Amino acid sequence: MAPLLELKGITKRFPGVLANDHIDLTLEKGEIHALLGENGAGKTTLMNILYGLYSPDEGEIFVNGQKVAIQGPTDAIKAGIGMVHQHFMLIPVFTVTENIMLGEEDVKVGGFLDRKKAAQKIMRISDQYKLNINPNAYIRDLPVGAQQRVEIVKILFREAEILIMDEPSAVLTPQEVDELFKIMRILVDQGKSIIFITHKLREVMDCADRITVIRGGKVVGSTTPKEADTKKLAAMMVGREVELKVKKTKAKPGNAILQVEDLKVLNNQEQFAVDGVSFEVREGEVLGIAGVQGNGQTELVRALTGLLTPAEGKIKILGKDTTKEKPRFITELGSAHIPEDRQKDGLILAFPVSENLVLNSYQHEPFSKGIRLQFDEIDRNGKQLVDKFDIRTPGINTPVSNLSGGNQQKVIVAREFSRPIKLLIASQPTRGLDVGSIEYIHKRVMEKRDAGCAILLVSTELDEIIQLSDRIAVMYRGKILDILNIEDASKEILGLLMAGIKPSEEMKHKVTKEEQLITT
Amino acid sequence: MAEPKKTPMDAKTTTHKHQSKSRKTTMGILFLLIAAVIWFVFVRPLDAGALTTYTMVPGGSTVSMADWVFPTAKVLSALAIICAVAGAYQLIRGFQNLTNAILGLVAVLFIFSFLSWASSGGTLNLAGLLRVTVIRAVPLTLGAMAGILCERSGTVNIAIEGMMLIAAFVSTVIASMTNLWIGMLSGILAGALVAFIHGTLTIKYKVDHTISGTVINIFATGITSFLSSKFIQKTEFQYLNEPGMFPQVDIPVLSKIPFIGPILFSHNLYVYAMFILVPLLTVALFSTRWGLRFRSVGEHPKAADTLGIQVNRTRYMGVILGGMMAGFAGTYFTLGSSGRFDELMTAGRGFISLAAMIFGNYYPFGAMGAGLLFGFFDSLAAKASILKVPVPSDFLGMLPYIATIVVLAGVVGKSNAPAAEGKAYEKESL
Amino acid sequence: MEKQKQVQKKQSATAIFFEELSKSSGLVTFLAILTGILISGLLVAFTTVEVYQAFSVSFWGGIKEIVKTAWSTYSTLFMGAFGNPKDIVAAFQGGDALTIRRAINPFFESLVQATPYIFAGLSVALGFRVGLFNIGAEGQIFIGALTATYAGYAITGLPAFIHIPLAMLAGALGGAIWGFVPGFLKAKTGAHEVIITIMMNYIAFKFTDFMINGPMQDPNEYTPKTPWIQESAQLTHLFADPIRFHIGFFIALGVAYLVYWLLFKTTWGFELRTVGSNPNGARYAGINTTKSTVIAMSLAGSLAGMAGANEVLGLNFRLVPSFSSGYGFDSIALALLGKNHPLGVVLSALLFGFLRNGSRQMQLKAGVPIDIVSILQALILAFIAAPAIIRTIYRLKKPDIEEEGVRVSGWGGK
Fold first, then answer.
1. C230: Cβ–Cβ under 8 A, 6 or more apart, which residues?
2. From the CA of A50, how many Å to the nearest CA of chain C?
3. Per the CB < 8 Å rule, is B225 touching C371?
């Protein structure tokens, strides 16, 4: 019997990039097939082709042995294919029902929406697969975990047989990931089939029936969890032996560099995104801030770096009160900031590499005299840093927009690390990077720590936090629930904290109003 | 599932709403300031016995109603006290969520005080002022709805001005040659055509929406002035600039209601069209399948695309419908208001429409409310000569424009612009 | 994703030359202007009664008439802008100074027309560089003219080398105030500069009207006009009549260089350009974006204000109602045509000066309304903004890296 889905020789070129190079892939009915590969390997491109968002340059797709032409999502939906995208495809100002029914609306005579009928259908699906969805909630009010379940219902609402899940675990706590895997099992048990895209080895071992590894746009191998081991998979994925652990010496913490007392920060909806946070970071240590995305980390970092003015509380850097100071003052004190979104905040994409390398020091000698910029010095500095930090660029006058993500991040690291700094605030420093760049940046950060720099590391990647941190603070809903020493931290405890549960107490659970809404 | 309770709770909603303190104080001080102005500027110089007389029947109307006469100083003192009390309460306790409503009320009281003061000792035709307000609101509301149609589906349209101008020209010429209805229809089609160009530039060629709108505005002023001075301003072509006007139609019964009847129900078709189109568009946008899909491409085109909705086709539809609406608004200037075409006759109304759209928070009813507000200032500027105010007419003429600036500066940032407006949709991007 | 370097195939030198040429933005700009001129020529032809009369006789006669109309239109425009070559040659052969001046006057008159374009174009270009769309140049020109006029007639007894700069500065200050308001509102409240500057235009028109009719009206005149400005404030004319060419042109070139230096060679310019390119990145880098926005709009306003001052101090010597111009609106297309670079602005200002001067002759002699220039501008602007249209028409190759077009922020200050 023909497999449920078969991809043959899929090839996709983008200007200057061969994203998919003759990829073959099969999916059998009732299996979870993991597509493993590091960032930029071409997994998402492949799935976007399967879902009709991109059109392939070459290759064929078969469903149940029949060749299908998928020219758009409509064709994909018709062929029984659904996709949960890495960045959710939900409209925040619409309700759950409106988001799910969009494109497949139940209507009354005259084209009027029948929201009630759609909501009933959603409840039926939600019950059948135990997904706990409140059809009347607005997406903007839902946590990411619930949004993900809405995405799943959206696919089931369209009666898809094949589910593509693109990096679904990225936004979840470890426990939520377990829940998700359970849901995936329920789906498979009831006859659905799943393609599961990830770059996390352990997840593959936990839940896949079959594994295909992609590297540089090519399939490099296929295996099952039983036959494979993580080390071999990692080597296949990256193309060489990988050190899974960063070498870490014992921290020798010194004086407190950053002190935060009872900090409260408002977000742009005038709610307390950071709600009474206190901690300190000392010389020569890494304090990691763990937590699910959207729990106030962004606002915390923006407040510390002067991009947002706190509503209440106090921030001290090197003994100076910086609560109400502007970014420049804080930078000049000797503080460096690797921003969470490098393209939005950290770089001026249209500017050349050399100018980005002086983005926060152009106003000083030797880069300027009076108000005159000294381009000779700026260029000299550019060449020097490009060499020292191994930035791969055609030249120092190339706009940064032409560099790869890893090299863009290196530009930021080079700029920040080349100044005399005592404090580093690094937010998601390795998001979206390939393994080589991740290793590089981790190494540099640890060098800075060992040189006596105080480091605040904010990351939603729990592995990264555990690897680099000496102490770990967990943020949940704007509060720090606990700060643990690395020796006392385990994934399970951190996971519970990330979900807002203090494991030390009785596991009594207050049922919040909202959950009552969801369960009733 | 073993323990459904472990599903993550709401990570984002910290329900603690924080009313900004500075805004609370600012508003309180503003209320007190208005009270002070009413008291010191208006009440103090008045004779104790001065009377304000408001005529309650617009000129030319046959519906009779007695004049409204009151002693100016006494009434205005009372209004000043109300504003002062509101200010004090705001400073001490705060109106919380009602602040904006109270702000509106205080503003109305202030304007009323100003009018009463300015017409003290004489008469002011209040009904006439309000009637003209409704008329002047028409092009602004229709223009704002044109904006809503474009922007709700993701296209920024600052070319409403140009679309109006071209439609005004075309409708005049065609109506002069045929009849009013065909003239109006051709104006609407002209709006659609210009909108199609805007759509092509922004959707197909991904030109910045504001730049594309500017292109169309420059083109519109150029082409209408060119053709106007080449043809319809010349005596031998004069007959092309005599389209006539849609007549006033009194709605039976309703137009006979004293005060309200002549203000609302004694107009030509444009006012009634506004009354019909506003609820119609509201229902279409928020209660139908068409509206749901339409709004989805303005909010999150990629999400809409993944559900099989044709993003660019929907956007073209939005721009063209918006262009038709702008065209309809443009024909108002000629066929509904002046009965002839003059160069640059729209005088920035297309841009004020945009401000009305933003002020109305992208809702048709909000747009009409904003349209009425700007229309009121417009009507006040037009009626300036009636007031015996020591303000030069040029300054009163600035009123609509100043009001626009004040409103924009006060509102923006709080309005909910569609998330993806002004952004080209790239289907295949890395 | 890692960018892979594509291997270049070996090609002959000429082939490479033509390939590079067809990708270059200079060619696109040239073709955009050419196409705009062609289309407007057709428009003129098709709105000419004689063309239809000729068509009613025969098809080829009609075509001939189209070509004839377009040709006569553009040759009138050309001679209006540069002078009639025959007359110039004849005048130089004759040797009479007045005749020579008359013959070469059109060229210098074009430079006179180009001068306010340089100022206003720099104003809009500077705004775009900082991510602000200044549609308010027209209003700023009015206010600049108003304040310059006042400084020109109210201050007496100064030598010219002080009075002229003072009056120019007064114009710059007036424009700066008019630019400051939208800049401040944008920075503090997020109110969009496009709508605010347009509203400021209308307010400027009304305000100027009021001033000329009231406080600044010449008491000896019955019609609304301001007094004549002092001779010491008048920009020196470099030739005798009828040539009106004055030192304002060189002031404009100097200011253009100054703007170039400021934008590209100084830390201030670096900050402004950073804000324009990525406001979030600028904030991260410690640049005060609020201040930059306000300064940029004020500077843009002062440049436009100098355009107004230039008109009064160099040409009119007094302010009369509706003295302008349309310079402010034209300069949007002009700035974009010049890629928002001061040098580009100067070049396109020259082009626009020639067009404007030529089109006035066109209106007088060929009866073509001057508004054809607006249409031409709109067409050029459309083609510049959407180079893909030009590339499709002429089957040009796409450039390797698409140039980033101008982007204006959306409503709500996002």
1. C152, C153, C155, C156, C158, C163
2. 20
3. yes
Q: Identify whether residues B186 and B171 lie together within a single domain.
A: yes
pLDDT over threshold 60, residue C276: yes
CATH of the domain at A468: 3.40.50.300
Distances, alpha carbon C368 to alpha carbons B225, C16, C50, C330, C363, in Å: 11, 43, 13, 19, 5
Those of residues 76-105 in B touching chain C at CB distance below 8 A are none
Unique residue bearing structure tokens 């409509």: A74
Contact at CB, A17 and C3, closer than 8 angstroms: yes
> Which chains have 3 or more CB–CB distances shorter than 8 Å to chain C?
A, B
Average pLDDT over residues C363-369: 85
User: Closest approach of chain C CAs to the CA of A337, in angstroms?
Assistant: 9
Domain count within chain B: 2
How many helices (H) and strands (E) chain A has is answered by 17, 22
H-helix or E-strand spanning residue B177: helix B160-177
Indicate if B81 and B139 belong to the same structural domain. no
CB-based contact A295 B10, cutoff 8 Å: no
Per CB-CB distance under 8 Å, the chain A contacts of C128 are none
For residue A17, give the 3-state DSSP assignment.
strand
**Backbone region of residue A284 per phi and psi (left: phi > 0; alpha: psi in -120 to 50; beta: other values):** left
**Does residue A244 lie within any of the structural domains?**
no
Q: How much is the pLDDT for A379?
A: 96
The answer to whether the beta carbons of residues B351 and C200 sit under 8 Å apart is no
The lowest-confidence range among A513-517, B29-33, B40-44 is: A513-517
Q: How many domains does chain A have?
A: 3
> Residue A144's pLDDT band (boundaries 50, 70, 90)?
confident
Among C262, C270, C292, pick the best mutation site for testing chain A contact (most A Cβ within 10 A).
C270
Considering only CB atoms, which chain B residues are within 8 Å of A175? 6
CB contact (8 A) between residue A327 and residue C285: yes
The overall average pLDDT reported for chain B is 87
Distance separating alpha carbons of residues A78 and A101, to the nearest angstrom: 16
**Integer CA distances (angstroms), C330 to C130, C137, C377, in order:** 20, 9, 7
Is A174 found in the same domain as A49? Answer: yes
